[in-house]
Design goal:
The chain starts with 5 loop residues before the first helix and ends in a 7-residue tail after the last helix. It is of the alpha/beta class. Helix content is 46%, strand content 18%. It is globular and about 60 Å long. A six-stranded mixed beta sheet has the order 7-6-8-5-9-11, sandwiched between helices. It is built from twelve helices and eleven strands. Helix 2 links the parallel strand 1 and strand 2.
């Protein structure tokens, strides 16, 4: 278990140290979301359905944000098979093509997002083979909504106004590049360090998350949420492929059907859930700002012009040709 923290190693050892005749134990985790979050409830639902529908042949131990390590470490352990299942924003450290999940301004509205990321969506067809190359079984996406820029002190709805504002970015290509192209200073920081970074002034805010995360975890630090919608926030339901291959066919069906049920529920509820947290944030005093159509169009044009060529270099022309063929068309002014 190279690269694991002592805590992670001990925690997993305790879970996996079970008698040979016992039910097969699986570890499910995520880098974000406590047990009471939407993501936490989704993990609980996936685990519960697996245990019930396998008639006890499978047991799932759920660990929430920070309990087994940071974002990169957890993804490393998933690839290595020390952790068996995750709902995660996958890391691009193994294969830059995973960055297709994070291409900025690829979809510009909910209808396009649901069609593109949904069960029959083109993005799912593009990304599935990439995960297979990494030794991961991809069940599909867990959509949250459109990300924004949350800040304290001042905010920006243009590249010019964003100058000098430092915001945290997920350390995943091409999100830092996107935020930089929008005019902000992007500072890649792991999720577990975001609150302290805002509190101590390392950054002036957070970026690329739906408002839930900024309201729920940082509302005492942040004043504004600008709905830039530069990314569509979507986690992935993944399983180590060697673990998957080792399951009996009937148990593979149980795990896959439970995953689909979790995703179906999230696709049905994601938009309403996002709107609920927008309202809650406003009630709590966070100012919610939607850029004008002209301001958004300027960001779309600038970001696509600067970041999409970088994405093509990293992801390859084949993937970016599909992005260009299927991406949302900006509304005429």
């Amino acid at each position: 278990m190279t690269g694991m923290t002592a805590f992670t190693a001990l925690a997993l050892a305790a879970v996996l140290a079970v008698p040979a005749h016992a039910a097969e134990r699986l570890v499910l985790t995520s880098e974000a979301g406590d047990r009471d979050s939407v993501l936490g409830h989704a993990m609980q639902d996936w685990a519960k359905q697996i245990e019930e529908n396998s008639d006890g042949r499978l047991r799932v131990d759920v660990f929430y944000q920070g309990e087994l390590g940071g974002q990169q470490e957890l993804f490393d352990q998933l690839v290595q098979g020390n952790i068996q299942m995750m709902i995660t924003w996958p890391q691009t450290s193994y294969d830059q093509r995973i960055g297709v999940n994070y291409i900025p301004y690829m979809v510009l509205g909910w209808e396009d997002a649901i069609a593109s990321f949904g069960p029959d969506g083109w993005i799912r067809k593009v990304i599935g083979p990439v995960y297979e190359d990494l030794g991961l079984k991809y069940f599909g996406p867990f959509p949250e909504g459109f990300g924004g820029i949350a800040t304290k002190g001042r905010h920006a709805t243009s590249a010019e106004a964003a100058q000098g504002i430092r915001v945290r970015s997920q350390p995943i290509f091409p999100l830092p590049q996107t935020v930089q192209a929008m005019g902000f200073q992007a500072v890649p920081i792991d999720w577990n360090e975001v609150y302290t970074s805002i509190q101590t002034g390392v950054v002036d805010g957070d970026s690329s998350n739906v408002i839930y995360w900024d309201y729920e975890y940082f509302r005492d630090q942040l004043d504004y949420f600008v709905q830039s919608s530069h990314n569509f926030s979507s986690y992935s339901l993944l399983m180590n492929e060697a673990t998957w291959d080792g399951l009996a066919p009937e148990d593979q069906a149980v795990v896959a059907e439970a995953a689909q049920a979790v995703m179906d529920a999230q696709f049905a509820n994601a938009r309403a859930e996002d709107e609920k947290w927008i309202a809650k944030a406003q009630e709590a005093g966070m100012e919610y700002i939607v850029p004008t159509p002209a301001e958004k169009a300027a960001w779309v044009e600038k970001v696509r012009a600067e970041v999409w060529p970088q994405a093509e270099e990293a992801l390859g022309a084949e993937i970016m040709d599909q992005v260009r063929a299927n991406a949302s068309v900006p509304a005429a002014e």
